[in-house]
Amino acid sequence: MYKFVIRPIMFLLDAETAHYFSFTIIRFFSRIGFGPVFRKLFVINDERLQREVFGLKFNNPIGLAAGFDKDAKLYNEFSDFGFGFIEIGTLTPKPQAGNPKKRLFRLLDDDAIINRMGFNNSGVFDAVERLKKKHRVLVGGNIGKNKVTANKDAVKDYLICFDALFDHVDYFVVNVSSPNTPGLRELQDKKPLTDILKKLKRANTKNANANKTKEKPILLKIAPDLTNNQLLDIIDIVKTTKIDGIIATNTTISRKRLKSHLTLAEEKGGLSGKPLAPRSTEVIQFLSEKSNKAFPIIGVGGIHSASDAIEKLEAGADLIQLYTGFVYEGPSLLKQINKAILKKEL
After folding, report:
1. Does the model's pTM come out above 0.85?
2. Which of 10, 117, 18, 107 is nearest to 71 (CA)?
3. According to the annotation, is 149 in a ligand binding site?
4. Binding site annotation covers 58?
5. pLDDT on residue 126
């Protein structure tokens, strides 16, 4: 029904308009009691799908990637479609509008999306108010810096977000890999990144001691455009800082092998969807093999089918996340993936 009725209607709208309209629809149906209907249609409850990763127990290995529910507005409602975890954000200390519109583009011939949103969000403290309600699903907090914050001061923004979210999320993701905030990817260099992660680790210990709770897992989200030498640096950084894992990968600035019209394909921003799948899988496999599986990896990038998901898991991912595949394929994709995982006994 989604691909033949709902998607064609939604795709008549501008991509960003359709995104927010979908939130209105989901919120409406959830409020009139359709949550149990969605769960019956899409959720598979099976102990064999459960995963314990970086100290957390996931009902299944499929998550919703950051960028979809930026402001933590529908994290519980999205769990009704079968997600085992929801990653909110990217959140910044201060609200920001993001880049000028139009900034979200569908590449229909490629089953892809280009976005240059620019960390548009209502600010971490606004999201915290919504995160105070009871969670029906594990929630990750993806954190970044404000556009106006200089890179030399970036760690202050990450610490503000970390401290604000500590009591309200289950794990953290440090986003230094979005291509849509000028200069942000420079923070992936070894020295500044090590500094940021070490200070977040100290903040983690401080918050845990103050609250008499366990420290929260800290993950790093990396770009697919890193070289092998840079990926080796990432492995070394994980070892040095003792963070808990990697999310591979963010969107790409590459435009290789696109079928879409040249004018559309050359829009600035990060590319996600099917064209990203091969490189994302390469990065997962490289990190897994070169580190000797030393840390967990969440695989994301171009998962549009059950076989795409299996490929990521077999390459070394412990968990996976959807974004563009969820837009193009709909919620039935989650059920297909979970069935395939059970069949493969992964």
Report:
1. yes
2. 117
3. no
4. no
5. 98
